[in-house]
Fold this protein.
Amino acid sequence: MNDSEKQENKINSSENQSLDKPITPFRCFMGASISGALAIAAYLLTKSIVETYAGIPISFDNPMAARIASTVRTLIMGITTMATFVFVMVTVGLFALGIQLIFKKSNSTPES
C-alpha cells in the first residue's frame, strides 16, 4: 500500500465512524434546539428586513428601476422567510423524531 491508499483508508474509516453513531433522543433534541435557535434568528432577521423595507418607500422616476427594486425586495423577503420556515420544519421534525424514539424504546423494553 502506498501513502495515498493509506490516507484514503483513513478518510473512509473516519467517515464510517461518524455515520455509525446511533440516533438517540438526546441527539434529536439537541439538533432541534440548535435548529430552533437558528429559526428564531432567521425570524428576527426577516422581521427586521420587512420593517426596514416598509419604512423606506421606493422612489424612482424610472418605472423599470422601480420594478427591479420591488422585485429585489420581494426576493430578499422571500428568501429570509423561506429560511425561517425551513429551520422551523427541521426543528419540528427532529423534536417529533426524538419523541418517537422515546416511545419506541419504552415499547421495546420487556416488562418483568
Q: What stands out?
A: The first helix runs from residue 3 to 19. The radius of gyration is 24 Å. The chain has a mean pLDDT of 88. The chain is about 85% helix and 0% strand.
